[in-house]
Amino acid sequence: MLKILDKKSLLGKKQENQDACLVKSFSNGDMLLAVADGMGGGVMGAELSLKTIALLDEFFEQEVEYPLTKLRQSLFMISDEIGVMLDGQKGGTTLCMAYYQEGKIFYINIGDSRVWVCRQKEITNLTLDQNRYEYNLLNNLEIKEDDRRIIHNILGLSSSFEIETTLDSKEWSAIGSYVLEKDDLLLLSSDGFHDFIEPQIFCEDIEENFESILSQVKEKSHDNITVIIAKEI
Questions:
Q1: Domain residues for 222?
Q2: Residue 50 in contact with residue 93, Cβ under 8 Å?
Q3: Fewest beta carbons within 10 Å, which of 23, 35, 49, 213?
Q4: CA gap 51, 115 in Å, rounded
């Protein structure tokens, strides 16, 4: 069974919170978790992330038998809806989702929000941030911290075809499943959180000192900060 330990979405140092998140539980014990982060520098960042979460909430009216199929379908539905909202303007949102079912999670990531797991104080990133930094790292090219801000794939800017191509690429590891073990910690976060911590240190200290760690992130982060933490019990 998955237990939600904490859920935070904070303004941070920005004037507007462009993040949004969802925790939805179903009667059979299934659960849907999601984090969306509106595109900085684009139009309607907050509106697009909130709309994305609202659409997900409506799309998953009840538990589903084939979570990955439903998650994949949701991407195209959301992309179409926010495309209408944008009407040719430049904007978009990242989105990471995890559907929990009987001790297993099914996940998809578009952009640089993240799904990750802490097991026995060791961290595993299930998704790879789809930005220039990670691309250059994978290809042994020069990396710069500013490259984290240049996202290769984002809902609203990327067409359905491009989303499908990215999901099918082993390079990004954007879609998959993972079996949780007892006491595993599952996290979904926006880059305003995980870009400003040392993940391994956080993983070692999360349950005892989450609020303290969050305060440290708030001091360093120049972005909105959103994180969902759950535990397999």
A1: 2-232
A2: no
A3: 23
A4: 20
Residue 52, token pair as written in the block: 């994305």
In this structure, what CATH number is given to the domain that contains residue 56? 3.60.40.10
What single-letter amino acid sits at 23?
A: V
pLDDT for position 161: 46
**Nearest CA-CA partner of 49 in 160, 192, 155:** 155
Q: Give the pLDDT confidence score for residue 171 in this predicted structure.
A: 52
Q: Domain count of the chain? A: 1
Pull the structure tokens for residue 45: 């960042």
Burial state string for 97-120 with b = 16 or more CB within 10 A and e = fewer than 16: bbbbbeeebbbbbbbbbbbbbbee
What is the structure's pLDDT at 175? 84
Residues of the chain predicted below pLDDT 70 = 158-173
Question: Left, alpha or beta for 87 (phi > 0: left; psi -120 to 50: alpha)?
Answer: left
Burial 206-230 (b: 16+ CB within 10 A, else e): beeebeebbeebbeebebbbbbbbb
pLDDT value of position 173: 54
